[in-house]
Each structure stands twice: as C-alpha cells, then as structure tokens.
Amino acid sequence: MLVIVGVLTLGLTVMAARLKIGIPYQNSTLIGDVAKASVGHGLFAAFQLTTALLLLSAASSSFQAGPGLLKALARTKHSDGETFGILNHRLGVINKYYTPYISVILFLIISALICVAVNASDQKLVLFYAVAVYMSFLIGLLAMARFSWVEKKYTSLILNVIGAIVVGFTLIVNLARIDPIASIAAALAISLLLYCLWVRAGRPLGISQAITARESRMSQTNRTKL
After folding, report:
1. How far apart are CA 30 and CA 23, in angstroms?
2. What pTM did the predictor assign?
C-alpha cells in the first residue's frame, strides 16, 4: 500500500510538473487539472464520470460499514439470556436482506447534515475526511504493531512501525491546516461516548456472538413465516 500510494503521488507530481500545472483554482483540483491537460476537454467528461462512480462506490462502502458497526454495537440477547451490545436495540433491527435499515437511515441523516454544514463542498469535506481516515490507519497500524510484538513477529513489527511513522507524519501535516482538528475532536467525542456506554452496560463482551444470535433469530423468524 505504501508503494502504491508513493508511486501515485510521485507520478502525479511528475505529470503536473511536465504539463506545467500549478496551484488549482478554487473550484478545481490538481488531479482534475492534470486530467484535463492530459486528455483534453473532450474526454475530460469521461474522467469526471469515472470519478463520480468511484466516489459513489466509496459512499456505498461507507453505508455498509457505518450501519454495520451500529448493528454490531446494538444490544441483543443471546440464547442463554445474556445481553450483548451497548447501543439501542432498534439499531440492530434487520430486514430479510440482513440490512439494519434504521441504522442506514440514521447514517443517511448524519451524512446529509454534514453535507449541508459544508455547503456540499468536496474540498472542505476532504480535509476532514482525510484526517479521519489517517486516524483509523494510525490506530490500526499501532494495534498491529502491538500484536506483532506480542506474537514476536519482528518483521511485521518493523513494517507496522514504519507505516505508523509515515501515517503519523501525514496526519500531523494535515492537522497543520487547523480546520481538520474538528475531525480529531469529533472522533474523540464519539469514542468517549461509546466508552461511557460500554462501562454503563457493565463492560459487555462478545459482539460477534450478538451478531450471530440476532441473525439466527431472524432466520428462524423467516422460516416460521414460510
């Protein structure tokens, strides 16, 4: 992943330099200007369409991961009567396609509010999005580094530490813009809220069992209806 990102970044830099592309205008991007200079105005529409499809795919992934997380954290009872989860049980309600539709609606409302707050400006959104993504990468790499240390897999440990340093540096550079600090604050606030709910619920474990139990009950209900 580090090699791929590095090649893409350096490749775009070289293309921008050769095509004499400077700082993009307010309603444009560096990649957009490079694409327009490379393929011309005729094929630039195809580039925009491809970009729109890519962003739509990314949004689809988010609407799977976000509601899926809420579903995993929703309270549910196991077959032995033990309760798992920390969020309201309604967030885990699923339809016959195993879609937590209430969580999807909640995620849609939150996304719409964020878009309205930044006037649907992708250049503003990407500043906050980048910080949130790099925070996730950093925490994941640190967790993998700790796992590698415990398992005494030192090659993986070195790679994870190097990756954490690179991602941490990129995160610091992004935070220098000041505004994306709001992403850090929001992530910390959400984490604190989830932690408090987890403590309030008695520090329950077994999220994977909760998901299995919920889907098992859903399957039994569908079989009964049939």
Report:
1. 7
2. 0.66
Cα dihedral sign, 127-170-167-187: negative
Following CA atoms 148, 149, 151, 156 in sequence, which dihedral angle do they give, to the nearest 10 degrees? 30
140-172 exposure pattern, b = at least 16 Cβ within 10 A, e = fewer: ebbebbeebeeeeeeeebebbbebbebbbebbe
- To the nearest 10°, report the CA torsion of 137, 91, 71, 215: -170
How many residues would you count in the chain?
Answer: 226
Task: Give the integer Cα–Cα distance in Å for 186 and 164.
Answer: 21
Tokens of 33: 């200007």
**H/E element, 27:** none
Is residue 221 within 8 Å of residue 95, measured between CB atoms? no
Query: Taking CA 211 as the corner, what is the angle to CA 68 and CA 135, rounded to the nearest 5 degrees?
Result: 40
First to last CA, the chain: 47
Please write the tens of the pLDDT for every residue from 179-206: 778 888 888 888 899 888 888 877 776 5
For tokens 């606030």, the residue is 189
Cβ 86 vs Cβ 73: under 8 Å: yes
pLDDT digits (tens, 9 = 90+) for 19-70: 888 887 777 788 888 888 888 777 888 888 888 888 888 888 878 888 888 8
